[in-house]
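Worked example 2:
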Amino acid sequence: MPKIPQHDAHHIVFGAGLIGCFIGACLIKAKQRVTLHGREKVIHELETNAYKITDYKSAEYLVKEKPSFSSSEHKNIEIDAADCIWLTVKCTQLETCIPDLQRFVDESTIIMCCQNGISTHKIIKAAFPNNHILRVMVPFNVVRIADGHFHRGSQGHMTLEVTPTMENTAKWLARQLNSDILPVDITYNMTALQWAKLQLNLGNALNALVDMPVKAMLERRRYRVILALMMDELIRVTTKKKIKLPKITNLPNKLIPVVLRLPDFLFSMMAQKMLAIDPNVRTSMWWDLQNGHTTEIDFLNGKVLDTANKMDVSAPANRLITALIKKKEQGKKDSTDEIEKRFDALLSSNR
């Protein structure tokens, strides 16, 4: 049986990028023993600069006692097995990270899967069938302000899954981590919560295509309507699957597309919390495309499309966005005018 983590438990943040470094600082703030495992470039950045996290509400925490570090490039360094691993790699890296991850797992290690998408934790469960796997929903964006400075740019509570065998552990972790700079909740129905989170994540691909900050995108009704169309398709899918989406914003899920369709002046009044994000924040999918990386499109809009196809639900908006992202991944870059023409055709067909 896994040990319930105490203050001297060993937490490894595996895949310490933007989200991982933010969570790592919060674990240190909660007086946990932490190792950050990531790329050599990130580790060097943390070793040679002040390590700090901030958020959009001006909260700040400076990490005075730095964690231990480990990198994928140097596998000869001995690291104790973790009591708890926070797996913060992207969905696209789950299969390939398993050999490296095995170094840090013993029979009592708890693995916290912090990925986007639906049921992506099953890849890790198949690789570690005897370990307890808990899902974690991370609803906010993190950006790098400067070397060693990680900033939460949007609202949302990180949520830990509660299972019958891990109820005490999940609740204990949530209590320890919960703070002004990282609000933490728990849920007994993570699958429904992941579908609700996916509804919000559908805008990641749109943001990557329009190539502008998220706030600027949301201030333009044209793009909000496209996002609303994608959300409508997800809601039709979850309704047919009889999944009740939990509310994770100040609006019920079915009302979000309605508000998105409002004229700009009404939207700016009605959706102040939705617009309470840093003006320079862009989504991780935008960053992936800019750096030539494979995106998570198959786990986001592609998941809605795949499920819709299986259930005989029409999903033209998610089909278009998925196809456009895949073209960009393959280096076949449509011009801005060509993308906007495809958007025009989608919007005309839904008037």
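The chain has two domains: 10-188, 194-349. The chain is about 40% helix and 15% strand.
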